[in-house]
From TrEMBL:
Residue ranges occupied by any Methyltransferase domain in the UniProt entry: 171-261
Region listing for Disordered, in residue ranges: 418-446, 458-478
InterPro entries on file: Methyltransf_25 (IPR041698), SAM-dependent_MTases_sf (IPR029063)
Lineage of the species this protein comes from: Eukaryota, Fungi, Dikarya, Basidiomycota, Agaricomycotina
Pfam family, one: Methyltransf_25
Name of the protein: Methyltransferase domain-containing protein
Domain of life: Eukaryota
Gene3D superfamilies: Vaccinia Virus protein VP39 (3.40.50.150)
Provenance organism: Serendipita indica (strain DSM 11827) (Root endophyte fungus)
GO function term, MF aspect, one: methyltransferase activity
Amino acid sequence: MSQFSAPKKTKGNVMCTSFARSLPDPWVLAGSKLTATTSITSTPLGLWTFLDEPRAIFSSLPPHFPRNKAATSYAGSMADPKVAYTDDDGKSGISALSEQSSVVDERLLRTVEGRKFNTLTETYFLPADEDEWSRLNKQHMAIGLGLQGLFPNGDIVRAILQTKDGEGKSILDLGCGTGVWSLEMAKAYPRARVVGIDLAPVPIDPETKPPNCTFEIDNINNGLTHFDKQFDVINARLIGFGLQNFRKSMVDVARCLKPGGIVIWLDGDYDLYWGYPPKYMPPYSEAYPEGSGLQRIFYETRRAATAKGSDIFGMSLALDEGLWQQSDILDPATCQTASLLLPMGEWMKSDDINEAQLLGFVGKLMRQDIMAAHKGAQPVLLKAGWPQTVLDEWSSKADDEITNGKVSIRMRLAWGRRRGDSGQPAPALEPIPVDDSERPQVKYPHYEIYQTKEQSLAAVEKRKAGKNITPPPFPPSP
Ligand SMILES: C[S@@+](CC[C@H](N)C(=O)[O-])C[C@H]1O[C@@H](n2cnc3c(N)ncnc32)[C@H](O)[C@@H]1O
């Protein structure tokens, strides 16, 4: 029988039980986020029709999942009032605000071209509003399906967090966005301390937030010395656009680990790929009229980010080179990198019906994610000098490519564990016996792990084909 049989109806909700069973801890432990309200009907494949209705996803989420409204309030706590609300000054070294009560969240957001943005830095310029949260939560699901859980190396993370319910353990989620990853970890490990930090307030309901989870307003660029040696697990997912010196942040983050703790980086390879095997396609321009509109938007977004101080181009090689380079802090024997290829839309095929359904599910989520993402970049591209008419042209090409083409985005991953005290290798972990029937029954087919830096860089070389292009022209001067 298919992994993805039709959702089983229960009073008041619908749960795709066989699908939920195919997810590993802590997704299942976290109370199965894959629940839906009765208004959602199943497709012939047993997938939910809400996938084609961007906003409906919010009404389908369990209570702890981020909602439409930013309900959390923040107030000064760890902050020195002189440095709270200052940006990128390189001197704060503390969280600007900690979640408490009484300060209106709107102070932390500003509106540009009808979208909301953080007020701490211009370097990170993707929005922080309902449309963005909806997008991020879909992306979270797609990545989770690809990785088959909340992290790429479940056995290691579980072994590190192995105490009753995570007692005495601490988890840090950097640039936590909607807070979805933090919340799922807090539910899975109810005695662990989970801290999510971000430039913008997290849209959660304080009433339903797990008590072991807190959120802080903080700018990673200002340093993380206040978190030195505090965490067992650190998640640094998709924050590259907001970092001004990626390699420095890599070091700052590694220092936040306790001996033996693990850091997991995940970020996009914003060179998009086409077809399978994946091939780079140049950005659309007069020189490449057959090029991709979506690739052009991604390219210009990176350019605009760089102009605002982001090290987004520097991130690419830093992550593909992996964390072996941090051998003074991290144990190289525990470092690996990986590639996760995610299709946009349902074009990626497999002879295995279960795999095909998994790919289709991921593709639907990613199609909606990227359609929203490229629109979210418009305010900054307008500010960079691109006329609306040009953006509309790229945008309509991009929508057509995502809907009818064979586009995919690669997620690059890198992880490693901190050395033991006095530079010893990372302490050995006690393996946790896992019942194989608990493991996901369908393997995501486009996930590759590289065991060494050489393997990782050899894969970079292979992906280089076709990338040697003349960069497209800059925007017209005003
Ligand atoms: C693309 S979202 C990813 C959110 C989340 N990590 C996830 O994977 O769903 C990037 C998030 O990182 C945050 N961010 C970017 N740069 C940051 C910085 N310098 N300090 C703190 N947060 C940052 C942004 O505000 C945004 O919420």
